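Batch job 17 of 40 flagged for manual review because the log was empty.
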Amino acid sequence: MTDPNRLPDPNIVLYDTMQRQKVRFEPTTPGHVGMYLCGPTVYSDAHLGHAKKEVAFDVVRRTFEHFGYRVRFVANITDVGHLQNDSDDGEDKMLARARLEQLEPMEVADKYFWSFFKDMDDLNVKRPSINPRATGHIQEQIRLIEELIARGHAYESAGSVYFDVRSWPEYGKLSGRKLDDQEEGTREAVREEKRDPRDFALWKHAEPEHLMRWDSPWGVGFPGWHIECSAMSLKYLGEGFDIHGGGLDLQFPHHEAEIAQAEAAGHHFARYWMHNNMLTVNGEKMSKSKGNFTTIQDVLKKYDPMVVRFLLVSSHYRSVTEFSEEVFDSARNGYRRITEALANLERALKDAPAGSDAALNSKIDVHTQAFEDALRDDFNTPKAVAALFGLTTDVNAALNSGKVGQGSIECALNAYRTLGGEVLGLFAADAQTAQDDTEVVDALMELVLKARQHYRLQKQYAQADDVRDTLNRVGVTVEDTRDGARWKR
């Protein structure tokens, strides 16, 4: 188990998108981490690409907690203002879905809000410390817009309010895009109410048919997509909070706009920026707009949720993860190897002799150190998984020798449960349920071996061989020894 009294580790390194290099993490408040993650727009079921982001930052959070930090993890829910094609034009995604399903917009939001969290629970993603919704923070967004207008960085036009990108020369510093090099876009250029086609909406005038609408100093309308994250991250994490995370596809324009809004209004914003890479299908980013997405719910009908999670943590968060049947099959085999070693340890503990094996304990310490070093280095989960495989190889060799003492078995179990369970989140089942399952399997196998022995004593060798062959087909090996038959996965 993770030591609750562990002092915060000062040696964690992360890749900061803003600085374009790995840097040592130094928290604003010693011993504490404030993290903000751009959450989902709840207008449809989440797909596997969303799962990569959520699992990646769940591991980041768990890693900080493992290394002794207290984490406040804030992830927003977008339920207004996110327009089609991520632009300032078109219909609100919530409204389009509401019309399609013949529901009220808030019915759509609640339906897919709970669907999203069911998916996350299945994938063993920890719930955020705070889950603010855009519609619940309209006043905070209005106040931030008023600050921007007062400072000369935003202007009202035809009942809408736009951020004046020309007034903020640093716009583009996260993505590295210079303002003069950014495409103005012919579609946006027709919006005559903008001073510059690249200006983005902070507040949008609501037409009479627009169902989601609020009073504001500029008339009835609704907030733009970007403003919610600036307002809510500052509200719950404060000035100069530690880490802002999200998908690489949000770097521009969403995160760029967040920075401009907050800093132009005079607020010190996020100190580190982390972005996960995409999940691809046949080399193309998985997305709803491309129509090549697979929902998490559909994937979980076919695969164990922990196999899906294992697949995602086997790829570095900054690397592309390719989706295919072959990749899932490989993940299933890898995950089975680790969980079978864990189950064999739990089984061996009951009859193990007292004592401990110094050599095995030393190997466990080496693998634990390798695991932790991997995560200290920009949360390198592939190397951490490799350390678990190394641990598994040594554990299996020790168990096959039949000479492992209780102390070493308990040490190995603690390593699996802490590193694979608490940090990587790979063992979602309740510990008692897992123990009960092991006891059931042991009891059933005892009956099977007794039946096989009965066939052998009655010289019914064909039936005895059939029992053995059936077990072999499902990955169970039977060994006949002087002390009777033994089995192992």
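Reviewer: the log was empty due to a logging misconfiguration, but the result itself is present. Residues 58 and 126 are 7 Å apart (CA to CA). Unflagging and moving on to job 18.
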